[in-house]
Structures are given as structure tokens and as C-alpha cells.
């Protein structure tokens, strides 16, 4: 069924403590750690903007105000750049800045899981479909961004869309895994999903990757959902319930993902994004050769 509403809003859950990056995250949110010269959260917002998202809803926690400051004007810095004739830097900052009224912030006062973080944004989203992007996950796509690829599928099918990627079968127990049925037009309908299945019991090797398009009915499910794995409100459990009434489709996107919530993934993302840059890629490649 074709969609009746386009996706205008995106939820970005940024309330996590980032304990795996201590002491760096003692006073700075993990989402503000940089991939080359941009914070992780800026890369994710850029991906959403490129897909047509107009309103960014950040679900925050304590000590996250620097994220709000990042997506705001800084008059002193802009004045200094202008006075020193650094117009290229000034224009770049202005281009990255969401327009007035395009950002909203709400608090997840207790760490009760991703499903609870999404539920905290219910009043800001309202009764319309929305995107959900996990800031721990960055996607380097060769052409069109991951969320934009998901929008292409949504515009054909409507319903709910999950980005998926293949992993080795022995790794499926670390992720949410989907069971899919591919139709004659190439669309992959999701028949079921399971969170962190026991080894050798996964229905496929396609994992849920941290990008979602969801219908607003999921908020009602989350409102009464009991705690699941880890004693947290799990978004996967809510999606399984919603699947009883609505269609879910998989988007096996083109690109490579990096789990920036882990140190190895974070370092790998820095290397990959740096090598892809025309301005620093060649020199960085030479520097890596000398190190290795």
C-alpha cells in the first residue's frame, strides 16, 4: 500500500552515557566524538537531511546540552570568522545548521531502553510516520545515503521499513535478526524478527542495522509494553506486536556501516571517512602506509 504521509520527522536517541569511551565521555557526549572533523551526530543528521527530513527530535539525558549548542548559532565564533575573512568556514557552519524551529529536545529521564526513548518523543512526533536513526551507527554509502534508500522503498510500499545488512551466521546472536520473503518485484517483506537469537537458530543472516521508518501506532504499543531483554523496553518487541496489523519491509541498503559505539568501529569509521575525502585522503593513505 502506497504511503499517505511523507516522512518529515526523525527521532535521534542521544541519552546514552557512553561508558565504553571513558574518560573521553566523562564531560562530553559520545555523540560529539568526531569522525575526522565532524561529530558523529552531525554525520547522522546530514544523512537524515539528505533524505528529506525537516524536523530533528533529540531524546537527550543529563550532560547533553552541548548537542543543543552544536545545532545552534554561536554568535561570537561567527563574528570572529567574519572579521577574519574566513568566509568558507562561516558558510560551511551555516550550511550545516538546521533552520529555526527544525530541532526539538526531550528528556529520557531514566535509561529504560531504546523503546522507551522512542516513546518519550511521542508528543513531538504526533500522529504521523517518522524515521528513527541510531547515532551509534554511521553508514558510508557510495551514492545515496541509507535513509534516502529507505525512503525510496517507503514511497513504493508504505508501511514500516527496516534497514538490514548481512553478517556471518555465527554473529547473528549479537543482533536483531529478520526473516524475509522476497517477491517478484524485489521487495523484501519481513515475516518475523527475533532479538539476539541463540546460536544456529536465527531465521536468516540479515540483521537490523539502526535505521527505521515506523508508523505512529507503535507509540500506543510502547506505552503499555513490559520490559524485555536487559530489563529494558525493547523496540524490537514493539515492532513484533505492530507486525500483527501492519506490513514491514527490509531495505538491504548499499553501503557500509560502522558501529561507533565500539572503539574498533569508531576507529574504523575515522579511517574509512578520512580515506574517502579528496582533500586529505591521499595524504592520509601515505601516513597509514608509514605506520603499518
Report on the structure:
The chain is α/β, with parallel strands linked by helices. It has one domain: Spore Coat Polysaccharide Biosynthesis Protein SpsA, Chain A. The protein has eleven helices and 13 strands. The strands form three sheets. Strands 5-4-1-6-11-8-12-10-9 form a nine-stranded mixed beta sheet, with helices on both faces. Helix 5 (114-120) packs across helix 8 (218-224). The mean pLDDT is 90.
Topology, pairings included?
Elements: E1 9-13, E2 34-35, E3 38-39, H1 40-50, E4 55-60, H2 65-70, H3 75-83, H4 87-96, E5 103-107, H5 114-120, H6 122-125, E6 130-133, E7 137-140, H7 146-157, E8 160-166, E9 176-182, E10 188-195, E11 206-214, H8 218-224, H9 235-242, E12 248-251, E13 256-259, H10 263-275, H11 281-291
Parallel strand pairs: 1-4, 1-6, 4-5, 8-12
Antiparallel strand pairs: 2-3, 6-11, 7-13, 8-11, 9-10, 10-12
Amino acid at each position: 500500500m502506497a504511503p499517505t504521509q511523507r516522512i518529515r520527522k526523525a527521532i535521534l536517541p542521544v541519552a546514552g552515557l557512553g561508558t565504553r569511551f571513558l574518560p573521553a565521555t566523562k564531560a562530553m557526549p559520545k555523540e560529539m566524538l568526531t569522525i575526522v572533523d565532524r561529530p558523529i551526530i552531525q554525520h547522522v543528521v546530514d544523512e537524515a537531511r539528505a533524505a528529506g527530513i525537516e524536523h530533528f527530535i533529540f531524546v537527550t539525558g543529563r550532560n547533553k546540552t552541548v548537542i543543543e549548542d552544536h545545532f545552534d548559532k554561536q554568535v561570537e565564533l561567527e563574528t570572529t570568522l567574519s572579521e577574519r575573512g574566513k568566509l568558507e568556514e562561516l558558510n560551511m557552519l551555516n550550511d550545516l545548521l538546521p533552520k529555526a524551529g527544525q530541532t526539538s529536545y526531550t528528556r529520557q529521564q531514566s535509561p529504560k531502553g531504546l523503546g522507551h526513548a522512542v516513546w518519550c518523543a511521542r508528543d513531538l512526533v504526533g500522529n504521523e510516520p517518522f524515521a528513527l536513526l541510531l547515532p551509534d551507527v554511521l553508514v558510508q554509502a557510495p551514492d545515496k545515503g541509507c535513509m534516502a534508500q529507505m525512503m525510496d522503498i517507503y514511497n513504493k510500499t508504505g508501511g514500516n521499513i527496516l534497514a538490514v545488512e548481512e553478517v556471518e551466521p555465527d554473529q547473528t546472536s549479537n543482533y536483531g535478526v529478520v526473516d524475509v520473503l522476497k517477491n517478484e518485484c524485489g521487495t523484501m517483506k519481513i515475516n518475523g524478527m527475533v532479538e539476539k537469537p541463540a546460536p544456529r537458530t536465527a531465521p536468516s543472516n540479515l540483521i537490523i542495522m539502526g535505521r527505521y521508518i515506523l508508523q505512529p501506532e507503535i507509540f500506543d504499543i510502547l506505552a503499555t509494553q513490559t520490559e524485555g531483554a536487559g530489563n529494558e523496553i525493547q523496540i524490537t518487541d514493539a515492532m513484533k506486536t505492530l507486525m500483527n496489523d501492519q506490513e514491514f519491509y527490509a531495505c538491504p541498503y548499499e553501503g557500509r556501516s560502522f558501529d561507533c559505539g565500539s572503539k574498533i568501529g569508531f576507529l574504523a569509521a575515522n579511517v574509512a571517512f578520512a580515506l574517502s575525502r579528496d582533500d586529505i585522503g591521499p595524504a592520509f593513505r601515505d601516513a597509514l602506509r608509514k605506520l603499518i
